[in-house]
C-alpha cells in the first residue's frame, strides 16, 4: 500500500522515492511475506507482465520470502562500466568493493511494484537486474530476476546469471547497502 501512495504522489508532484549520487541510485523497500505464487497473482492483478521463467523462479524452493525486512538498495548504473567490463563477474566484484551485499530475490518484485516505467526511464535505465543468488529454471540455467520497461508493458522477467554474461549500458544492477 505504501508503494502505491509513493507512486501517487510522484505522479502528482514529481517527488522521487529514490535518490541518485555518482551514478548509483538509492532507495528502500520493505518485504511483506508475499510468497512467489502470491507475487505472480499480485503483479498480474496489478497489470504487470510476469515472464514464463520469472514464474518458475518465483515458484522455486530457492525463492524465500521474508516479512518486515527493510532493505536499503543501491543500483549501480551500467554506465559505471566500459562495454567490455560490464559482465556479471565484474559487476559483482564492483559491488563487493562498494561493500554491497547480495539481495533476496524478492527485492525484484518489490522494485517492480515500487517504480513505474516512467520512473525507471527517468533513472536512465531500461532494466534493473537484481543481483541475488542465481536460481535454476526448468532448463537448469541459472537466472536472475529483473525489472524492465518495454513498449508492450511493465515486466518482471529473468536473464542468465552466468559470470561472463555481458550487459547493456542502460542496465542497472541492484545490491544491498550493508
List the helices and strands and how they pair.
Elements: H1 2-13, E1 19-21, E2 24-32, H2 36-45, E3 49-50, H3 52-58, E4 67-77, H4 88-97, E5 100-101, H5 106-114, H6 117-122, E6 127-130, E7 135-136, E8 142-150, E9 153-160, E10 171-177
Parallel strand pairs: 3-9, 6-10
Antiparallel strand pairs: 1-2, 2-4, 4-10, 5-10, 6-8, 7-8, 8-9
The gist of it:
The protein has one domain (18-177).
In terms of per-residue confidence, which ranges show pLDDT below 50 for 5 or more consecutive residues? none
Distance between the termini: 26 Å
- Helical fraction: 25-40%
Task: Give the count of helical stretches.
Answer: 6
Major β-sheet, in short?
A: 10 strands, mixed
Tell me the Rg in angstroms. Answer: 15 Å
Describe the structure.
Strands 1, 2, 3, 4, 5, 6, 7, 8, 9 and 10 form a 10-stranded mixed beta sheet that branches. This protein has 178 residues and is of the alpha+beta class. The chain has one domain. A hairpin with a 5-residue loop joins strand 7 (135-136) and strand 8. It is globular and about 35 Å long. The protein has 6 helices and 10 strands.
